[in-house]
Amino acid sequence: MTAAARTDRLFLVTGATGKTGGGTVNLLLERGHRVRALVHREDERSRRLAAAGAELAVSDLHDLDGVTAAMRGVTGAYLCHPILPGLIEATTYFAQAATEAGVRSVVNMSQISARRDAGSDAARQHWLCERLLDRTDLLTVHIRPTFFAEWLKLWWERRDGEGYLRLPFGEGRHAPIASADQSRVIAALLLDPEPHDRAAYSLHGPVELNHHDIADVMATTLGIPVHYEPISVQEFASAMAERGLPAHLIQHLSNVAVDYRNGVFAGTNDNVKKIGHRAPMSVEQFVSENRADFDTSGPNFVPAANATARNPRE
Questions:
Q1: Is the pTM of this model over 0.90?
Q2: Are 138 and 103 spatial neighbours (Cβ–Cβ below 8 Å)?
Q3: Which spans in the chain are helix H?
Q4: How does pLDDT run across 229-285, given as a tens digit for each residue?
Q5: Residue 269 DSSP class
Q6: More confident residue, 175 or 313
Q7: Which residues does 83 contact at the CB level (< 8 Å), separation at least 6?
Q8: I need a labelling partner for 230 at 20 to 30 A (CA). Which of 11, 49, 138, 145 fits?
Q9: Can you give the C-alpha Rg of the chain in angstroms?
Q10: Coil, strand or helix: which one is 227?
């Protein structure tokens, strides 16, 4: 492909300061493409994207006029909405604005738990939004990742020189998928949408593990004891409420914990390598590359009721 052919397309990336969005912006820029990054505000993160060569569109997925302006001249777009209320409205605005602007394709960030009968409100809404996008004339592909590897950093506790994962997942299993691997898939789908129209791809890491296995891998990599302590969904939900996490997120995570136990997040496949052209990162590789993050506790860890007093940022 010539340089001119590469740069005649413009890609819109929403959630551009987030994990998958930011990685996608950088990959597209590195490959010589024009990128418009939808951001909520100009701050240090968005300025880094601009410095790398991205055009900034400061708006919100819940602002129809702002999204419409951001879509002008766009060839393909990545849609990523946080686990917050308003997904259906945002997807509707996105689809309408993209259609009006003549956008050709969309990559939609969905969830592996998305289905009509999901207990999670967010998961059911993702299923509805998939159906909404499928009814447009856009070339549409949905990605459905299992739990991100980054989850480990959020829910990790470092206490007295040891690590703890206190989570409500029982003996369920999954293959953690790093956001960087997802970004490679997203970029590839934006660049070549035709073969993937109306597809839904589950994304997994290379090895399916339960959390006892994950703790063992982390212990070996970090060189400290790491413990997985299964807890109830109620204890998990109560801890999130005490930390002030949004009710919508608590309802979602409580219900997907049950899904996880029931095998909804399990499995692995070759989608990341086949589409993104690189094997996905293992838990060992992820922990090794992010070692400094495991020197302290993550922001959401669930404290043990009988634990001695401790500094959560030890």
A1: yes
A2: yes
A3: 3-7, 19-30, 44-52, 64-71, 87-101, 121-134, 151-154, 179-191, 211-222, 233-242, 247-261, 271-276, 283-289
A4: 999 999 999 999 999 999 999 999 999 999 999 999 999 999 999 999 999 999 999
A5: -
A6: 175
A7: 122, 248, 249, 252
A8: 145
A9: 20
A10: strand
**Which two tokens mark 282?**
């293992």
What is residue 313's predicted lDDT score, i.e. its pLDDT? Answer: 37
Neighbours of 222 (CB within 10 A): 17
176-212 pLDDT, tens digit each: 999 999 999 999 999 999 999 999 999 999 999 999 9
Question: What is the 3-class SS of 79-132, one letter each residue?
Answer: ECCCCCCCHHHHHHHHHHHHHHHCCCEEEEECCCCCCCCCCCHHHHHHHHHHHH
Residue 287 Cα distances to 180, 216, 218, angstroms:
13, 12, 7
Give the Cα separation of 269 and 15 in Å (integer): 26
> Burial, 28: exposed, middle or buried (Cβ in 10 Å; 0-12, 13-18, 19+)?
buried
Which amino acid would we find at residue 97?
A
